[in-house]
Write a structure and sequence with these properties.
Radius of gyration: 38 Å
Order of helices and strands: HHHHHHHHHHHHHEEHHHH
Number of helices: 17
Largest sheet: 2 strands, antiparallel
Structural class: mainly alpha
Helix content: 40-55%
Number of strands: 2
Length: about 375
């Protein structure tokens, strides 16, 4: 009679043995194939529960999680007011990310005046200062990025809030984080103005991106690549001791930084028509800050910037003009060259097409006041 796995463990609900015994028959005993197969099933059933978390199964999102993810910033704030006290850590991070991504800075200032939104920010700040081991690197960086987008008053001390996230990122393997996550972390440190204390971490991230002929650079989004270059320019600043009070700094670029800028330049030149003009203006200003003259890149971006300059603010356009003038690259439309064909038009009164005919000049004759000369009697 065949026995099932449930019969082998006993009644339903009885836990499996912690350490199943290995089947070892005596030399004189006969091996029962059914009993051997049954023992193999018991060992497989005992090992399966412990191996289940390592498979990386995708956890299904709850209804509240999906509603927070799909809502606008204002509607998300309403959901937080109604159900925020029952949010899990993952849902709270997603709610803060929605409000940070789908709003302007002015709207985020208005949302922060609401007590329930401020409570979510304070909750995320406490999580970042003491991150639990169950949260992944992606969720930690996502929460830190969302908090940094809000006004500075909600993050508290930037060093105390973001340092645990940076240390957790540095201790993780390169395969655990994506390229955009690394770009967001570097942007957070640069925006909080604490990136100068994380030079080894910045070098580690750049070295991982340029490894194997920069194969990870094309995986960055357009915004992620622009933010990464901007943050790298801020991270390589070194304040001189003699001129620290005056705010004078110098840029010290490493060899991998040049390689990253070169790989980014090749990608931008190939995809320049699909890039947002505001990101191109930001990249131009980044090259100006670092001091890297890339004439092919600037010539490739020039027609796009000139054609879409109405979408740029006055400040952004002035930075572009300053960068092009520093590197002495012309910022103008492409010349059409010499014209080899002339079209003669008729009826042009400003510049006649036909030479005017020569007319005989006529002069006006003087007219007499009287038809005859009056006679005067002499001697009268």
């Amino acid at each position: 009679m065949k026995r099932s796995v449930a019969d082998a463990f006993g009644a339903a609900g009885t836990p499996a043995p912690a350490a199943p015994q290995v089947f070892a028959p005596t030399p004189n005993a006969m091996i029962d194939p059914k009993a051997y197969f049954m023992q193999w099933q018991q060992q497989a059933a005992a090992v399966a529960p412990s191996a289940a978390p390592a498979t990386g199964a995708v956890v299904e999102k709850t209804e509240v999680h999906r509603s927070v993810e799909d809502a606008s910033a204002v509607k998300c704030a309403g959901i937080v007011k109604e159900k925020g006290q029952n949010f899990t850590t993952v849902v709270a991070i997603e709610a803060l990310h929605t409000m940070a991504m789908k709003s302007s800075y002015k709207l985020r200032e208005e949302l922060l005046r609401q007590p329930h939104v401020r409570k979510v920010c304070e909750r995320i700040m406490k999580i970042l200062q003491a991150p639990p081991a169950s949260l992944s690197i992606e969720l930690l960086v996502r929460a830190a990025w969302s908090l940094q987008r809000f006004p500075d008053e909600v993050r508290g001390d930037a060093k105390a809030t973001f340092d645990p996230v940076a240390r957790a990122f540095a201790s993780s393997a390169h395969a655990e984080w994506s390229e955009d996550i690394a770009s967001k972390l570097v942007w957070i440190l640069a925006k909080a103005d604490i990136i100068s204390g994380y030079q080894p971490l910045i070098s580690q991230i750049v070295a991982a991106l340029v490894r194997d002929q920069c194969r990870r650079v094309p995986k960055l989004s357009h915004e992620g690549l622009a933010n990464l270059l901007w943050a790298l320019a801020r991270g390589r600043r070194h304040m001189k001791k003699d001129f620290k009070e005056k705010g004078i700094s110098t840029i010290r670029v490493e060899a991998n930084d040049y390689e990253l800028f070169a790989a980014a330049s090749k990608r931008i030149i190939a995809e320049v028509e699909t890039w947002d003009v505001r990101l191109l203006a930001e990249i131009t200003h980044t090259h100006h800050e670092v001091g890297i003259k890339d004439e092919p890149l600037m010539k490739a971006m020039c027609p796009r910037i000139i054609g879409k300059q109405k979408e740029l603010s006055t400040d952004a356009m002035s930075k572009v003009v300053k960068a092009y003038s520093r590197f002495m690259v012309p910022l103008r439309e492409e010349s059409q060259g010499f014209r080899t064909l002339a079209v003669v038009g008729t009826g042009d009164f400003i510049r006649p097409s036909d030479k005017p005919k020569k007319k005989k000049k006529t002069y006006d004759q003087p007219e007499a006041l009287y038809p005859n000369t009056p006679l005067h009697a002499s001697g009268l």
